[in-house]
Specification:
Length: 330
């Protein structure tokens, strides 16, 4: 039998080493740029779903049932992510997900903790009619487009701590746990319509954007406003609160003045600082001129009774300007 021997030279070793490195690098790049799809409408997943660090170009999970944990940590959704009517029975992790397109969670149910912390959105995020049975975490997120929590039920805490928001809409929303919005930064609008806060609403050190609306809202717990930066306009209509609402602890916004509209609100349970808040009546206000004047008088009497001299004098000047200005200005 003839035995063949091969003389491996240093040059051959170098070529082999470089070729091996190229193969490894190619595999790494293929993994990094791989695109995945999840086209599973109506399917029931009995095992854990794990798409961590993956890029998904197709996500159609309408009416899916996830019986075990779901983990999309650091995934990227390049097209609309459809999870409408989905049921998540265990912990759900969307932490640090990049939503390049719309996130559709209409009518979805989260039985346990839902973690949307540190996410980035570039389109609408919609949780209309969703139910969160445990904590709903949206902290430290960058929500650059509108977020909808209409007819959403939060049975535990909802946390938007230190998140950046463009516009957020809460309509017919029931928040049974604490609402942690402290240190949140709103760029544009925060709108709460027919919302129930069963416990604390924490807005400490939050930046409330250009417009904050509380319309038909009930507060059953404390509203924390220490160090809160006031919005450009604040509208409070048909709103009830069991504990005093103290805007005296707030900070003026960049303009130095917050326009304040009050309609059917118990002002005796509110504290406003009229050195940086100005009573205001939008053109579509149903309040008559007489009702507007009476509101000034009632607030002046309160400030005088409370011996808040500087706020009283500021409001007195506002009322004088109101009396002397054409009514269309107000």
């Amino acid at each position: 039998m003839t035995i063949h021997t091969y003389n491996i030279t240093p040059t051959t070793k170098r070529v082999y080493k470089r070729f091996s490195l190229l193969i490894i690098l190619s595999l790494i790049l293929q993994s990094a740029f791989a695109q995945f799809a999840l086209n599973t409408n109506g399917r029931t997943f009995t095992r854990p779903v794990d798409y961590r660090y993956k890029s998904l170009f197709l996500i159609k999970c309408d009416s899916c049932v996830f019986e075990d944990e779901v983990d999309f940590k650091k995934a990227t959704f390049t097209r609309e992510a459809i999870f409408s009517n989905a049921i998540f029975k265990e912990d759900t992790k969307f932490e640090k997900v990049n939503f390049k397109a719309k996130g559709n969670f209409l009518n979805s149910t989260f039985s346990k903790k839902a973690d949307f912390g540190y996410i980035n959105t570039y389109s609408i995020l919609d949780f209309t009619n969703a139910i969160f049975n445990d904590e709903a975490l949206f902290w430290m997120s960058n929500l650059s487009e509108s977020v909808y929590f209409n007819s959403t039920v939060f049975k535990d805490d909802v946390v938007l701590l230190k998140s950046k928001i463009n516009k957020a809409f809460f309509s017919n929303t029931n928040i049974m746990g604490e609402a942690r919005f402290d240190n949140m930064y709103a760029n544009d609008s925060l709108v709460f319509t027919n919302v129930k806060f069963a416990k604390m609403l924490n807005l400490d050190s939050a930046h409330l954007g250009t417009q904050l609306i509380f319309d038909s809202v009930s507060f059953n717990g404390i509203v924390r406003l220490r160090g809160t930066i006031l919005p450009n306009t604040l509208q409070m209509k048909n709103t009830n609160f069991e504990l005093p609402l103290d805007f005296d602890k707030c900070i003026p916004n960049e303009t130095g003045s917050c326009l304040l509209y009050l309609e059917n609100v118990d002002v005796t349970n509110c504290w406003f600082n009229f050195q940086f808040m100005k009573l205001w009546f939008p053109h579509d206000s149903p309040l008559s001129s007489e009702q507007q004047t009476n509101l000034y008088k009632k607030l002046l009497a309160l400030e005088k009774k409370r011996k808040r001299t500087e706020s009283y004098e500021a409001l007195k000047k506002q009322m004088n300007d109101f009396d002397n200005a054409p009514k269309e200005v107000y």
